[in-house]
Amino acid sequence: MDALDLLKEQHDEVNTLFKKFEKLEEGSTAELRELFVMIADRLSAHATIEEQFFYPSIKTDKTEDLIREAVEEHLGVKRIIADLLEMEPSDEQFAAKMKVLMENVEHHVEEEEDEMFKLVRKVLDKDQRFALGVQMKAEFDELMKGEPRNEVPMQTDEAAPV
């Protein structure tokens, strides 16, 4: 799989989970917690494969500043996740922190897909992106092993259990 397609797929997956979280905001604490943990696990694994494989593979003079900024954005997201892991969804600050997390991730994804991906297509050819994607997918899958609910719940109109 092309590395850019993999990252886009993961971005979309987390976005779907964020939307599900927003719909469940009035749901039970256990459901909200479980969904948050799914989001946190995916974001953590995603950041890991970007930092270990993707960013080093695309580093050039043209991408260096974008990569530096992306790593700082990852750090900010990790700090928010760490705070959220220490809280219960019933905490009055939990929803506010989740909103900030969503906004930070959305901003990061926009910059990555709108700016960085265009430069990557100039830096890596299709075969290089495919080989990188295979490597990144294997590491992501390994990181997600043993995590509860390795699949994103299907979107439905009904309130399905998480």
TrEMBL record:
Keywords: Coiled coil. Residues 3-119 form the Hemerythrin-like domain. Gene3D superfamilies: nmb1532 protein domain like. Pfam families: Hemerythrin. Residues 95-122 form a coiled coil. This is Regulator of cell morphogenesis and NO signaling. It comes from Hyalangium minutum.
